[in-house]
Recover the amino acids of this structure.
């Protein structure tokens, strides 16, 4: 532990002279080697003397200052900002109406707990009010029990240190409880620390907890008027992930504009990652909403779809990596046309499945089996020639590519069946 992995003594894949006649075996093993290499590279930060070099396809694109999400077309973000603004107006109206300046905490709380869905708002609210309550209780207990007996700075440091230790213990936990520890630490600091010395004022603890409670109530009130349910919107990022997969599978590198195409593929790959993670997050958030029991079947269906989409994603990446590998030869024009037709067909199927998730009418799908059979017909199974001339290398690369493509077609067909099953479980939305 704490050391970089040692260099492997196993023979490298490049030393293999034969794939045993199994089409697709060599690129599959190569893809596994690349995956294991990335795992090893991820741990090389432990070795400060080693320079890490990643392949171009595995290098994330440099993110600009203003991302594509910074747009008026991002209606979800605009709606979230407007909801938070309405909650702030409500809290500030109460603050000035009651002449209670401590309610400024309520406005801050309304912004902090405003999340992308009702389930996320409930989760953040519970952590914030729970942390404030725990920290306030520790602060009040410190003021009532310890403060009357503290006569020096050392005693105050010991008492405050115990409270901060409890808050830090929660803060270093998992993401489900870390924010609670942060809030507890702030509440303890407001209660037990004062520039003038030991304090016996209980007002900060009361104002902190009540201010947070008012801010949470204000945000939940806005959510009740303008609800955004994770159960209803968790299908949208999944559909966007399907469309990103469709764009990615259409990646067909050519000599002209190869760098631009590769950057586009990297962007599409990042979009798949972000949309699938958003789907998983919203599915978990829907479990905190009032009708969580009713939506259990939907969550399970979304989980299966997400897992299968990841399988399709890995198959597409394997296809692209084989296509952009340094030793991949230039294929004959009929083969390239057949591959592009298959890529377009898979992309059209994924786009159609995304439309189904969005509630659009069903459309007829391309016959992927026919397209993969047409591609395989160009390279029927024959014994490998003993020579290693250019024709043999092209034939072996094409057969490997066809084998990987057939695996992708199989996974897409299974994904289509999963989408149809999900549509039968998912209730119709008005």
């Amino acid at each position: 532990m704490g050391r970089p992995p040692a260099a492997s003594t196993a023979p490298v894949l490049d030393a293999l002279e034969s794939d045993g006649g199994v089409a697709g075996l060599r690129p599959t093993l190569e893809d596994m080697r690349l995956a294991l290499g990335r795992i090893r590279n991820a741990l090389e930060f432990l070795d400060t003397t080693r320079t890490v070099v990643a392949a171009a396809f595995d290098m994330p694109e440099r993110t600009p200052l203003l991302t594509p999400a910074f747009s008026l077309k991002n209606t979800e973000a605009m709606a979230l900002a407007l909801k938070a603004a309405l909650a702030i107006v409500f809290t500030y109206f109460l603050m000035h109406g009651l002449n209670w300046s401590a309610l400024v905490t309520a406005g801050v709380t309304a912004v902090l707990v405003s999340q992308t869905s009702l389930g996320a708002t409930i989760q953040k609210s519970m952590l914030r009010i729970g942390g404030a309550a725990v920290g306030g209780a520790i602060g009040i207990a410190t003021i009532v029990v310890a403060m009357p007996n503290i006569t020096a700075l050392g005693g105050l440091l010991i008492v405050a240190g115990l409270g901060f230790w409890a808050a830090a213990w929660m803060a270093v936990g998992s993401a489900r409880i870390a924010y609670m520890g942060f809030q507890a630490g702030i509440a303890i600091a407001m209660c037990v620390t004062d520039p003038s010395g030991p304090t016996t004022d209980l007002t900060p603890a009361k104002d902190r907890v009540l201010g947070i409670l008012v801010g949470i109530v204000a945000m939940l009130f806005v959510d009740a008027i303008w609800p955004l349910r994770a159960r209803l919107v968790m299908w949208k990022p999944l559909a966007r992930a399907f469309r990103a997969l469709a764009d990615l599978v259409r990646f067909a590198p050519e000599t002209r504009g190869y760098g631009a195409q590769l950057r586009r593929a990297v962007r599409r790959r990042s979009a798949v990652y972000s949309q699938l993670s958003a789907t998983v997050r919203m599915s978990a958030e829907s479990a905190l909403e009032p009708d969580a029991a009713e939506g259990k079947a939907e969550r399970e269906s979304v989980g299966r779809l997400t897992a299968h989409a990841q399988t399709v994603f890995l198959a597409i990446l394997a296809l692209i990596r084989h296509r952009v590998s340094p030793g991949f030869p230039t294929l004959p024009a009929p083969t390239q046309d057949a591959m592009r037709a298959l890529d377009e067909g898979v992309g059209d199927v994924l786009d159609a499945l995304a439309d189904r998730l969005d509630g659009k009418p069903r459309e007829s799908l391309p016959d992927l089996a026919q397209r993969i059979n047409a591609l395989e017909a160009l390279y029927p199974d024959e014994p490998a020639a003993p020579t290693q001339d250019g024709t043999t290398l092209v034939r072996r690369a094409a057969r490997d590519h066809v084998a990987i493509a057939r695996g992708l077609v199989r996974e897409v067909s299974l994904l289509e069946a999963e989408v149809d099953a999900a549509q039968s479980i998912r209730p119709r939305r008005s």
Observations:
- The chain has two domains: 83-225, 230-425.
- The CA atoms of residues 314 and 408 lie 9 Å apart.
